[in-house]
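May I ask for a sample protein chain and its fold as tokens?
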Amino acid sequence: MRVSKLKLIRSFFYYIFIVVSIFLASIIFPLSNWYKKNIKVSIDAAIFTLRSPLKGSDTGITEKVILAAIPAAIGSLLIIFLVFFVEWFFTRKRNDLLFINEEAKVARKKKICRIVSFLLALIYFIVSLVYCNSKIDYMSYAVMQFNHTKIYETDYIDPKEAIITKDKGVEVASVDDNAGAETVEKANPTKNLIYIYVESFETTYASKKYGGYQPNNMNLIPNMEKVAQENISFSTNSNLRGIRNTCGNDWTFGSIFSSTSGLPFKFPNMYNKTGKLKKFASGVTTLGQVLDKEGYYQEFLCGSDANFAGRKQYFKTHGNYNIFDLNTARKKKLVPKDYRSGWGFEDEKLYEYAKNELTRISSKKQPFNFTMLTCDTHFPMGNRCRLCGDTYSKKFNHGQEECNKGLTADVVECADRQLSSFIDWCKTQDFFENTVIVIQGDHPRMDRYLVKGASDEVRTVYNCFINSSVEPVLGNKNRTITIMDMLPTTLASMGFKIKGERLGLGTNAFSSKKTLAEKMGYKKFNKELEKYSQYYIDRFS
């Protein structure tokens, strides 16, 4: 009885192993190819995206992944059927009296078939993992999780404990013509903030002539390239080449988190929980909390569902932001209840809502921080709106990949025009004189249509500071600035003084102090961020 039960258990695990290993191996091969061909993101970003809830997201990319896996899934079923058919064929019983000890022979054949099948399935699965690693290099990521870093103990500066002050302000004399009396007032020492995160906005969109990656006759961001020249834009070279992403901030929420906290997003097993927790990252002090303490009205505007990836929860609990998202637009009847274009509503609507909100909040007798996130340039290919032209989709129309490149280029060019127009509008408003506009690409784009062959060093994100209160002491060229440096740099641009010039792992790029990436070297700095830190988890979560 025990023997028969043991055989039954062995058979059960054998069949499970054969089915699972062949199925997984069969889909690993094509998905690895698809990932390598279409996507360029870190393992951290991929895990965050895969483990985040689909609610509030654009499911287009999910559909593409499923379509890429379907043929392989069908193929795996055929392979599994073939394995079991071969086993049945060679071990079937024959009603032939010439065969002696037929049961024993059948048992031996079955054992041999199963051993061979098991080994072949195991080899097939191992080869698929090796192939996947050659495309994605997940082993390097796994190895780094067993290495430990002390960077947070040695280099982190808590904004809550840092000394952050305002300028004393400028005394302005005014005369009352009626009374003939002179009064002295103090001008506002710090400025308002408009922070614009532009989805997947890289400096590679400019032509090589201006420091980008496109052919010299193809500048997709002529307007924003000009804006960068006329204002302050930090660059890794002497031309238009922006700031570097690091581990933990090369996807949208990771970038938002890093630029406002001075930390990489390195919370394990919390990728799909951030929106469900009452308090997320409660040990972290952010830009929003600093400005909230200073009496700023704060608002976050996005064209998608702010619940996605926990953005709403993060902003609400780290600065008491008011939220304006797709759900808000539906409640206000600005769009129909079932309206959806791409991730939500188009950037065309986003900018119109931003103008209305800025007009409203600028009339308040308090400084403001208005943060917004665009989404039309999100991968893959972006979301075409009625304002998008067809210049490049007509030019690149041979083959699917070239067509996709043309469509993406048109969307980027449209985003450039819309963003430039919005900045021009801001400049005509009464609040502009006392407002800093910070523009930041959230991360490099996640597909390869416009950046195929470009090195990571070239693929920097756009940044620009308009109407800054200060000028960079070391200049804005040939610097290595990372997303985490944006926290102290933004505060400095608004007129705040930071003792020591550092917050989080970030450094004020307007100061004479070197960033950690400059001090340590970018590659070494990034390697430290890839490592595991229990201190990080204990202190910040």
In short: The longest helix spans residues 2-38. The mean pLDDT is 86. Residues 234 and 476 are 5 Å apart (CA to CA). The longest strand covers residues 192-198.
